[in-house]
Amino acid sequence: MRHNKQKNPKATGRIRIIAGQFRGRQLPVLDSPGLRPTTDRTKETLFNWLMQNVHDAICLDGFAGSGSLGFEALSRGAKHVYFVEKTSQASLQITHNAAGLGCAQNITSYHSEFSQALQNIKQNESEHSLPINILFLDPPFGEGLLIPSLCASVNHQILATDALIYLEHESAVTLMHINQALNNLSQPYHLKPIKQHVTGAFHYGLYQLLRR
């Protein structure tokens, strides 16, 4: 659902937009347990990978948290970004930050569980805001959310047939596990790696969604 105008929540942290129209702008974010904004270094790497693909893209920032990835995409020319965040204060902060940047008309903010937001996007949005070209998925670690959320995104048929998907997840989840799940869908898919980076604690990578 879209938020009505409300009082600005208390923000105690900041994220920085690295490049583009809003370069250098620092946005207030909540400092709360479980909120884990993507680091500047990781974000810069990701958008170097996406350099040729962001302009005019329709994006979905699932488990948006601070909205760092979605706002970076908007700054670099994305046409529209769907933000999904179940924590009410974090979702409200995203809405206020969009208004502060002057890009509120380019976002749709859903304060809901990810699965519910997918249904709303499918049912309520016009053909001008679909299909989604870039999906950012960075769910909380250790809760088993990545693979079900990715499969649900595919099943709702809101992604472009060659969508680009950014995944950030704990190292125990592998591409083999992800592709096994996608291959078991009624219409089988798989992810083709484009770029990947591995650290000791987590993996992140950019992939292309392809039909089997």
List keywords for this structure.
212 residues; alpha/beta; Rossmann fold; 6 helices; 9 strands; 29% helix; globular; disordered N terminus
Brief account:
With 212 residues, this protein is of the alpha/beta class. It has 6 helices and 9 strands.
Descriptive report:
Helix content is 29%, strand content 28%. By secondary structure, it is of the alpha/beta class. It has a single domain (13-211), classed as Vaccinia Virus protein VP39 (Rossmann fold, 3-Layer(aba) Sandwich). A seven-stranded mixed sheet has the order 5-4-3-6-7-9-8, with helices on both faces. Strands 1-2 form a two-stranded antiparallel sheet. The longest helix has 14 residues, at 88-101. The protein starts with 12 loop residues before the first strand and ends with a strand. Residues 1-9 have low confidence and may be disordered.
